[in-house]
Design a protein that fits this description.
The protein is about 45% helix and about 10% strand. It is α/β, with parallel strands linked by helices.
């Protein structure tokens, strides 16, 4: 059970849930018909015939839209794919439109590659940014009503009270969402982007638009009230049951950017500081990433960009921002 997880390991585990982060290993393999499938162990240990049905079957018809866009300018091409920090076996195998775009790209771009950091570097980030070091605990920094909800949910998810008490509100939010996703049947081990990174590192450069420490610094820099509101976002979604996770995966699978936008905005709209938090966590970061992607595309290489799905959609999402810079955008 999760109450056996140590404080330090859980903090590192929660850091892995930062947007566009990478998790445990997923291996890209080929079956006897040279079709791509993914599994959580080296390819030689299983044939596709031995895999669960969701992984071993060939991809379904590739004529429906995917959460993948092609952005072109005269100088180069950028593929933009939205990702989720968790997954399920029925998301695989990935459609050929996605695997072909990745294979044909020169460079893979991610937000922040947690897998590239050794645990010795992650632990100080988690301890310094996500945990209290002044002998106070979570109860001292949030309202009593919020703490009662946190305590109830953490117990239901198998997290010991002493573990959640050490965490700051933003870190507690990530920890609880992670455990809730797993309880609902969605795992970090089957998230999309980690498989991309593992495959790409053998054949092409992998660039980061962000760093784990910068993301943690951004969240830790929020006021206590703002951090509590982020925690309340997670509490609200978890208390809905598995609807949040299921709805996001269904929208992602069908390439439904409008629904993803609605789900992302829903997390903010019920909070007093929703506009400020959304601007800080999404609008401003998306604008900075659009500038960087625009600069990179000018060198003539083909880039495959995989980022948190919420950064692609909406009025201030990457798709609109790049279109305003002269990119031609088409969904694949």
């Amino acid at each position: 059970m999760f109450h056996l997880v140590t404080r330090s390991n859980l903090l590192v585990f929660a850091l892995a849930l930062l947007p566009t982060s990478i998790f445990a290993d997923v291996y890209k393999c080929l079956d006897q018909k040279d079709k791509v499938f993914y599994q959580d162990r080296p390819c030689q240990e299983l044939t596709s015939a031995q895999l669960p049905p969701g992984l071993s079957q060939l991809a379904a018809s590739d004529n429906k839209p995917h959460f993948l866009w092609k952005a072109t300018i005269a100088e180069g091409t950028v593929y933009l794919m939205g990702a989720l920090p968790y997954g399920a076996s029925d998301m695989y195998p990935l459609p050929e439109a996605i695997t072909d775009a990745l294979s044909g790209s020169d460079v893979l771009i991610v937000g922040a590659d947690v897998a590239a950091l050794p645990q010795a570097e992650l632990l100080p980030i988690a301890a310094n940014r996500g945990a209290y070091t002044d002998n106070s605990d979570l109860r001292d920094h949030i309202k009593a009503a919020t703490w009662e909800r946190v305590l109830k949910l953490s117990k239901a998810l198998g997290m010991a009270e002493e573990t959640i008490l050490t965490q700051k509100p933003w870190m507690a939010s990530l920890s609880l969402m992670s455990l809730a996703a797993k309880q609902a049947g969605y795992t970090q081990e089957l998230s999309i982007e980690k498989g991309f990174v593992k495959d790409a590192q053998m054949r092409k450069p992998v660039l980061q638009l962000d760093s784990v420490d910068e993301q943690a610094k951004l969240l830790d820099g929020l006021s206590e009230i703002e951090q509590e509101q982020i925690l309340l976002q997670s509490l609200n979604e978890i208390e809905r049951g598995d609807d949040y996770f299921k709805s996001m995966i269904e929208a992602w699978t069908s390439g439904d950017s409008s629904t993803v936008e609605l789900i992302v905005r829903r997390r903010f709209d019920s909070l007093p500081a929703s506009d400020k938090l959304f601007k800080l966590l999404f609008t401003d970061r998306s604008a900075a990433m659009a500038e960087k992607i625009g600069e990179l595309a000018a060198d003539g290489r083909t880039y495959f960009v995989v980022l948190e799905a919420g950064h692609l959609v909406g009025e201030h999402g990457l798709l609109n921002l790049l279109q305003s810079k002269g990119f031609k955008i088409s969904q694949l």
